[in-house]
Specification:
It comes from Brevibacillus formosus. Keywords: Signal. This is PepSY domain-containing protein. Strands 3-6-7-8-9-14-13-12-11-15 form a 10-stranded antiparallel sheet. A 3-stranded antiparallel sheet has the order 1-2-10, with no helix packed on it. The protein has 5 helices and 15 strands. With 258 residues, the chain is of the alpha+beta class. The longest helix has 16 residues. It has one domain.
Amino acid sequence: MNKKNILVFSMALTIVGGATAAVFAAENAVHSTKNKVVTVASKAGNGTNQTTVAKVANGKISDEEAVKMATKALKDYMGLDAKSFGEARVNRTNAQEDFKFFMDLYSKEDAAVLKENAKKDTANVIVVQFIRAEDLNQPMPASNRIVINEATGEIVSLTAFTNEDRSSETTIDDAKVKSAVINFFDKQQKNVKKNTMKVSKTANSGTIRVLCDLEDGRDVTLTMSLKNYSVSSYEINYDRLLPLPSEENDYRENFREL
């Protein structure tokens, strides 16, 4: 199972005050971007959520367009209400910038694979992060986070914050997992390759992780709630990076085939 960029390696699943949120710790560690980070304020008006953004000349997709795309993805794929999104922050990056920063943090075996990944052509991506007003001053705020491949306009990663109570369910219904993953990607007009799904052997606070391949050869990691088998996050390996030895060991020990 590959990861599409080095940020994924620092992903942590966090439970915040009875709400389920997938929080990417590495988001706060990114030290360089292609454009200055733009903070976008959401303003209420006429009962709707209006987002004001300054357009940027650099890049094929403006910040304004990126926020609109991110908002639509959260509505279409997660069914979330834009009124609850809060403040939008736009950041641009590329995995190459992060390889240099993280290289020394890994074991010798993992670092050797990272060096190989650093030789690959990696995509410029736009990260749109929606942060609620009450979380703005938090060092690692719970947020909705969307990553867009700037060259293709594809939503390659999405993490949704939901206010639903944590599920105490521990039993994993394999049929529901399969159906939920297939239906989720059907919405995006993507096909899941047959017999490639793997699921975590145990649940963590009512959530599970799922691995699968798309028919185009890219691999994906998803997080799913056992309460209603809804997807709260997914990551497509858009750079087709090689898996780290530590990742492969994790998959062997902690996942089973569906």
